[in-house]
Amino acid sequence: MKIINNYNLKYPSLLDLFLLIVIVIIFFKIFILHDHYPLHDEIISLDRYLEPKNFIRRDSTNNQLFLSFFGMLINFIYGFEFILFRMISFISFVGIIIILRNSFSKFIIYFVFFIIILSSDLLFNYTYLYRGYYVGSFLLILNLHLLKKYFHNNAIQFLRYSFLTTTLLFIHSIYTVYFIIPILMTVFIKTYVDKKFINIKICIIYFITPSIILYSLIFVITGFAQTYSGNLNFSFLINNLFEISQNSFLPGLKTVFFQDATKLYFSFSALFEKLTKGESGIMTTHQITILLIIITSIVNLIYKLIFKRLTLNYFDCMVGIFFISYFLINRNPWLRVFVPITFFLIFYLLNEINLLMSKINKNHYKVLIISTSIIFLILIVLTKPNENYNQLKNEIAKIDKVKDNCSLANSKLNNYEIWIMINFYPNSCKYYYNNKLKKNILID
């Protein structure tokens, strides 16, 4: 039973060639024509979560597990390579396209998909940042693809794969609870309708049990890093494992699930302002594309509830539960969290478009193909990385002048710039923390 279809690589279809060309063009625009400078948040991730001993630790929302895991592997195998770290998000983006290719075969689906990506400042620029939102989006789209196969075929194997992917999604980051709730509730509704209560056992085996085990590990490691900050070594951990587990579990749980960064309460005005005006920092542009995706999803769902009830499906149910749980959770997440949220709704809308295209006549379909292809061509030519995302360009330019002379760097750089240099050029200088001066001191 195949999760991903096999393709004839010797004789690829016209659609496959189109997707390959688009991926190459986007890659060229991002990684060949664009100079890369880090974000402040990327430096935090490089500072805290790049080593095997701390990539699991969840002491801030900055650590998204699988981003840190792949970053750790790259650092171990290739050494510190910033572009390779950023490639994690781009590879996740390509992975999303591959999954969509296994779900949809119409050109118009991909014209619409790329129009959404290229017209959104947030979605396009996050394809190349060392942030975990595209990794989370990949896991989410894979999960939705598996659920689609399960809903259509009633094959238990796909449900098992879905629950395993749900576990990976859940441990990746706390924001994934937005998707875990509708996914689980929709599966339980189908379980009740079909009277297949064996699904509850499958959920316990493939989701609940591994999630409890893995999150217990995350709680203990996070709590250990806080409670025993003076004894962060492996031998101390092994020799005092039971005591550490007892004393670290609750502090770790509180840190993971009750961080101050999650206490941003929901309001319609705050959400509307965020999507129409942006946020402070790098994301100062509007996100009208994302707002339109949200509005279109809601309007489509309401229309089907009122006029097309017989056409409602389990994805309609899932999206409805998503919006209800979003309001009940009562949080106003950072704009970057709308990357996976948007992909969740994109998959839903692409399914709706796919169904609609099978019902319209050929002349209307041709008009849609021509119009979407023209919009796509304009966007693929004009879209390029936003310079706002070169957040630390000035700091890196200043550091580049002195990074080969550690003594000069100490005198020319301020504390913040020294911190950036330590983490962006880890092989340039060694350093130690001077308690008296309360700053890092660079040494040859």
Structure description:
By secondary structure, this protein is mostly helical. The protein folds into two domains: about 15-385, no CATH class; about 395-444, no CATH class. About 70% of the residues lie in helices and about 0% in strands. It has helices spanning about 15-30, 40-50, 65-80, 80-105, 105-120, 120-125, 135-155, 155-170, 175-195, 200-225, 235-240, 240-255, 270-275, 290-305, 315-330, 340-355, 360-380, 395-400, 405-410, 415-425, and strands at about 430-435, 440-444. The chain has a two-stranded antiparallel ribbon with strand order 1-2. The chain is globular and about 75 Å long. It starts with 13 loop residues before the first helix and ends with a strand. The mean pLDDT is about 90.
Structure summary:
This protein is 68% helix and 2% strand.
Descriptive terms for the model:
single chain; 444 residues; mainly alpha; two-stranded antiparallel ribbon; 20 helices; 2 strands
Secondary structure elements and their pairing?
Elements: H1 14-32, H2 40-48, H3 65-78, H4 82-103, H5 107-119, H6 121-125, H7 133-153, H8 156-172, H9 177-194, H10 198-227, H11 234-239, H12 241-257, H13 268-277, H14 288-307, H15 314-329, H16 338-357, H17 362-382, H18 393-400, H19 406-412, H20 415-424, E1 430-434, E2 439-443
Antiparallel strand pairs: 1-2
